[in-house]
Amino acid sequence: MSPRSFLLDDRLNAYVTSHTEPVDPVMAWLTARTQELGDRAGMQVGPDQAAFLTMLTRFAGVTNAVEVGTFTGTSALSIARGMGPSGRLLCCDVSEEWTAIARRGWADAGVSGQIDLRIAPGLETLSALPTDPVIDFAFIDADKPGYAGYYEELVPRLRPGGWIVADNTLWSGNVVNPDDTSEATEALRAYNDRAASDERVMTALMAVADGLTISQKR
Q1: Is the pLDDT of residue 190 over 60?
Q2: Do 205 and 212 form a contact (C-beta atoms < 8 A)?
Q3: Bridge partners (DSSP) listed for residue 166
Q4: Which of these, 42, 93, 86, lies nearest to 63 by C-alpha position?
Q5: Which of 197-204's residues contact partners 24+ apart within 8 Å by CB, and which partners?
């Protein structure tokens, strides 16, 4: 079973996936291999979100992208495919084990040459980047308490018109549950508040997958 939005029941999910670009053998392999990880497989983006990332990346003319939180590589593959062979994607992750699955999938898809995977804390990698505003697109899907720090490192490095997409920002609906005061939930509320009020960007929170907060630099 592929990851799906908490907003969809079985029938709606089947309808959505049947009307979305079908997965190819590499994506199918990545999904199957990720499912072997058990509960952690829920961190993988679903086929509808993967297709959306490819379309958005292509639409935005992205050639220089950053991903924070790579896991088994589905979202990175989607972004790389949207950029085309001239694009470059910097991936930040801390797990050699999970990204080993990603590396195999990228190799099979022929995009390994586009991807620079850095195994280190994401904030460490981002803060060491040049401060020039040259990033076209960034995707954040890592530890939730780290979202605010990643955002603040990325926004100054975005070119005007560049995009930041943050995943899981509805958090299975828990962002509006006043009884949930867990660290992750509070961090996502703070992230959404910051993105919505930041005058450097315009933001829309989309009810796609587990929530995507999409910000574009003015």
Answers
A1: yes
A2: yes
A3: 140, 213
A4: 86
A5: 198/155, 200/155, 201/155, 201/164
Give the whole-angstrom CA distance, residue 176 versus residue 185: 9
pLDDT of residue 145: 98
* Residue 4 falls inside a structural domain: no
Per the structure, the complete domain to which residue 32 belongs is given by: 10-217
Could you give the CA distance from residue 151 to residue 171 in angstroms, rounded to a whole number? Answer: 18
Is residue 25 assigned to a domain?
A: yes
The span from the CA of 212 to the CA of 175, in Å, is 13
Number of H helices and number of E strands within the chain?
8, 7
pLDDT of residue 1: 40
CA angle centred on 90, ends 142 and 126, rounded to 5°: 65
Prediction pTM value: 0.97
List the CATH number of the domain containing 204: 3.40.50.150
Instruction: Give domain status of residue 5, yes or no.
Output: no
Instruction: State the chain's maximal CA–CA distance in angstroms.
Output: 47
Q: Is residue 167 part of a domain?
A: yes
**Domains identified in the chain, total number:** 1
